[in-house]
Design goal:
Radius of gyration: 23 Å
Low-confidence stretches: 1-33
Number of strands: 6
Strand content: 5-15%
Structural class: alpha+beta
Order of helices and strands: EEHHHHEHHEHEEH
Strand order of the largest sheet: 4-3-6-5
Mean pLDDT: 85
């Protein structure tokens, strides 16, 4: 559920496809590397593949479950070579200036700049250990005398517009299962699991989601779509349980994720407040 973590947000362009070849390095046809600058891993018809590009590709692959190895580096370089060969041929075929290409390139640029702006903002406004400790203390104090935390097992449906969310909600109200509708219309990656998110705590998610989540009964779906910066959401409470709170060190990653999301949401909300936004009805 990507307001609960990060998916439905603007992403850096992925360098490695899900089925990337992990086989041997580019063979004899790609083997002529003599004379390349020290910071260059390969070149294709004069276009350079730098070591920085390769490292970014490796990190992207690792984040998707690949294991770091010499074979992975070779596969990343091979993938870049393939991309360059195809993109150079597209230039020759006159595809680079097509309306479709220009639209896609503009979207890639916008997504990259959006991601860069968020990462720059967070670097300039970091969440410190003192911030994390204060948030942990606040959450522990909010548990009351019993000192137990509530956890919620959640599923979600993410769509682009309020109309899409209302249509999905109508299907659920007519008797279709939440997971069936999620698989049918959700735009989030977890649609293949029927929208399953797993166990979360209210403090780990955006306030507008948390405020709805804590009001739901087991098996209940949010009565109305929830607007997020990334789109519109429906959430379902699958189950609820209480448990002892983790130690500060155990809780730090989750607290940091929640505080990061809130800080980004506040930043985006301020940008939206200061902007003139017109949506065609």
């Amino acid at each position: 559920m990507k307001p609960f973590s990060s998916a439905f947000n603007p992403m850096v362009v992925r360098f490695i496809a899900a089925g990337i070849l992990a086989s041997a390095f580019v063979g004899s046809s790609f083997a002529q590397q003599s004379g390349l600058p020290i910071n260059v891993a390969a070149s294709v018809n004069g276009a350079l593949i730098t070591n920085d590009m390769v490292e970014q590709g490796i990190r992207a692959a690792i984040s998707q479950g690949q294991k770091e190895s010499p074979q992975l580096r070779s596969a990343v370089i091979e993938k870049f070579v393939e991309v360059l060969l195809l993109s150079q041929q597209a230039e020759k075929d006159g595809l680079a200036n097509s309306e479709k290409a220009n639209t896609q390139l503009a979207m890639i640029r916008q997504n990259y700049l959006a991601d860069l702006e968020l990462s720059t903002y967070m670097a300039q406004n970091p969440i410190t250990d003192a911030d994390l400790q204060a948030e942990y203390n606040r959450e522990i104090a909010s548990l009351g005398s019993q000192g137990m935390i509530s956890e919620y097992k959640v599923s979600d449906i993410a769509v682009a517009t309020e109309a899409d969310a209302q249509a999905a909600l109508a299907r659920i109200k007519k008797g279709e299962s939440f997971d069936k509708v999620a698989k049918s219309v959700s735009l989030a990656p977890n649609k293949v699991q029927g929208g399953a998110v797993g166990w979360i705590q209210p403090g780990q998610v955006a306030p507008q989601l948390a405020s709805v989540l804590i009001t739901l009964s087991k098996g209940q779906v949010s009565p109305a779509p929830i607007q997020m910066q990334q789109g519109w959401y429906l959430i379902k409470l699958e189950d609820k349980k209480s448990s002892k709170p983790p130690s500060f060190e155990q809780a730090k990653p989750a607290i940091r994720a929640g505080m990061t999301q809130r800080k980004q949401f506040e930043f985006l909300s301020q940008l939206a407040k200061d902007a003139k936004i017109i949506v065609q009805q």
